From TrEMBL:
Reactions that this protein is recorded to catalyse: adenosine 5'-phosphosulfate + ATP = 3'-phosphoadenylyl sulfate + ADP + H(+); sulfate + ATP + H(+) = adenosine 5'-phosphosulfate + diphosphate
Protein name: Adenylyl-sulfate kinase
Top-rank taxon, per record: Bacteria
UniProt keyword annotation of Transmembrane helix present: no
InterPro entries: APS, APS_kinase_dom, ATP-Sase_PUA-like_dom, P-loop_NTPase, PUA-like_sf, Rossmann-like_a/b/a_fold, Sulf_AdTrans/APS_kinase, Sulfurylase_cat_dom
Entry's family note: Belongs to the APS kinase family.
Organism: Pikeienuella piscinae
Chain's gene name: cysC
Length: 567
């Protein structure tokens, strides 16, 4: 039996033991796993994260952050941590077992806590992701979503998470190894993707498999990817639509339930280790592999070949061979794709960038067959109709008394005059009355209120409607979380109503600012609590000497320029 087809260890117990442990676990303290933790736990239990036996201990965590290795010097570049709330952390201690449940309360595993600590998240961000910069989605998650306390210790697997979608396309590492063993696949090259496959990808994978003299595993990520990515349901339909372009006897597609961190070079090494565990012998690494885009200074987080270089440095230790991505371009003169470095100097090269592709989809423009398969374009158009037909959210933010609600009401009327899509106004005061009446005005409660507004807006947007939100929303991180919720389904327009605190106080019909100055209202935004002004709002309006109707018209013009309403 070859090394890539031999079984690897899993963390699951037998079905009889699992039944007994379920009964015992019912009385244990329970932690409801986040979506990212569910992805991590699944790959821990099925061997995808081999040699890990559970969530990182403090010693392993510190060693990974500083050296890309476990405490015993085994190569492992990405911390796999169970982050929990401070309240839950106070309830548990080392040498205690806890039940790990999915979001519906089903017990998936038991964790034996060995370590509990408060990490230095800024150091983790700087060392693992290269910068403590909130523009990086994993750094933002680390600071604004992940819990403040980490728990470490081994995991005993009871049952895998349930997936209701694409069941026949999901394989554990040992299921893939058995499949390769059955077919006699001794050399397998894995192609990692979180995007739809276009013709350039097909040419790339064909060439990679041919050069490596290997069979091809198309192994797309369907766990958590970058906010704003195309949803995995659409992507899998796109993959299935073009699978018959590949020879069935040499190609297999399997879905990987991985929560990506967009960690560039470290992530590439991590992906290579995961693919090694899944029975692959070769791994395609592209330019800027798992790159998150631009940092706060507008520059790329990682160099274009940093990922390839780091995997090349460690490929022997991993036991997998790097296949460098070759940028494929369409040469019009030859009507074929070629590696960019092999194109004759006088040839005409055609290309469509990701930005241009999105523009063509948004505006319903033609996408040529040399670029993508008609079947793929058809699936993308189902999910991404022209922008003028999509749902969207307009999110006003500003101080109390700035004029948000007045402008929002004027905008609602203008959009209802246009017709075609239902319009819903989510005013801060109205939402508090109907959805958040139990909440106070602490930072925590204000965050909960804004996230509720964001959730409702995302559902309206997903179903093709228009949501207009008009809360104060004083905190940058919470506004960003709402943006990410909405942008899964449609456009998000942030409007900063930049009326000064002095003007808001002068208009104060309810006397709230006066009470706040006297200390009778605690944590009042702009007086005793901060308002973090948006730095990158799509539109800024000021209501001094400008009527609400004119401000609403400015929003309408912005929506028109974004293609969200017809001119």
């Amino acid at each position: 039996m070859s090394a890539n087809t031999a079984p690897i260890p899993e963390l699951y117990v037998s079905s009889d033991s699992a039944a007994k442990l379920k009964v015992e676990a019912a009385s244990l303290p329970s932690w409801d796993l986040t979506p990212r933790q569910i992805c991590d736990l699944e790959l821990l239990m099925n061997g995808g994260f081999n040699p890990l036996k559970g969530f990182n201990t403090e010693a392993d965590y510190n060693s990974i952050v500083e050296t890309m290795r476990l405490a015993d010097a085994t190569l492992w570049p990405m911390p796999i941590t169970l982050d929990v709330s401070a309240e839950f952390a106070e309830m548990v201690s080392p040498d205690q077992d806890i039940a790990l449940r999915d979001q519906e309360g089903v017990i998936l595993a038991i964790m034996s806590i060995t370590d509990k600590w408060t990490p230095n998240k800024s150091n983790e961000a700087a060392k693992v992701f290269g910068a403590d910069d909130l523009a990086h989605p994993a750094v933002n998650y680390l600071h604004n979503t992940a819990g403040p306390v980490y728990l470490g210790g081994p995991v005993t697997g009871i049952q895998p998470p349930v997936h209701y979608d694409f069941k026949s396309r999901r394989d554990t590492p040992n299921e893939l190894r058995a499949f390769f063993r059955k077919l006699g696949w001794r050399r397998v090259v894995a192609f990692q993707t979180r995007n739809p496959l276009h013709r350039a990808h097909q040419e790339l994978t064909f060439r990679a498999a041919k050069e490596a003299q290997a069979n091809l595993l198309i192994h797309p990520v369907v766990g958590m990817t970058k906010p704003g990515d195309i949803d995995h349901f659409t992507r899998v339909r796109c993959y299935e639509a073009v699978l018959d372009q590949y020879p069935a006897s040499t190609t297999h597609m399997s879905l990987l339930n991985l929560a990506m961190r967009m960690g560039g070079p470290r992530e590439a090494v991590w992906h290579a280790l995961i693919r090694k565990n899944h029975g692959c012998t070769h791994f395609i690494v592209g330019r800027d592999h798992a790159g998150p885009g631009k940092n706060s200074q507008g520059e790329d987080f990682y160099g274009p070949y940093d990922s390839q270089n780091l995997v090349a440095e460690h490929q022997r230790e991993i036991g997998i061979e790097l296949v460098p991505f070759k940028q494929m371009v369409f040469v019009q003169d030859r009507a074929e794709y070629m590696p960019a470095d092999e194109v004759p100097a006088d040839a005409t090269v055609l290309s469509i960038s990701g930005t241009e592709l999105r523009r063509r989809l948004q505006e319903g423009l033609d996408i040529p067959e040399w670029f993508s398969f008609p079947e793929v374009v058809s699936e993308l158009r189902k999910t991404k109709p022209p922008r003028v037909s999509q749902g969207f959210t307009v999110f006003f933010t500003g101080l109390s008394g700035s004029g948000k609600s007045t402008i929002a009401n004027a905008l609602m009327v203008k959009l209802m005059e246009l017709g075609g899509r239902p319009v819903t106004l989510l005013d801060g005061d109205v939402v508090r009355k109907h959805l958040s009446s139990e909440l106070g005005f602490s930072k925590e409660h204000r965050d909960i209120n804004i996230r509720r507004i964001g959730y409702v807006a995302s559902e309206i947007t997903k179903n093709g409607g228009i949501a207009i939100c008009a809360p104060i929303a004083p905190y940058t991180a919470t506004r960003r979380a709402v943006r990410e919720m909405v942008e899964q389904f449609g456009a998000f327009l942030e409007v900063h109503v930049a009326t000064s605190v002095e003007e808001c106080e002068r208009r104060d019909r309810k006397g709230l600012y006066k009470l706040a100055r006297e200390g009778k209202i605690k944590e009042f935004t702009g007086i005793s609590d901060p308002y973090e002004e948006p730095q990158n709002a799509e539109l800024v309006v000021d209501t001094i000497n400008v009527s609400p109707d004119d401000c609403a018209q400015d929003v309408m013009l912005k929506l028109e320029s974004m293609g969200l309403i017809a001119g």
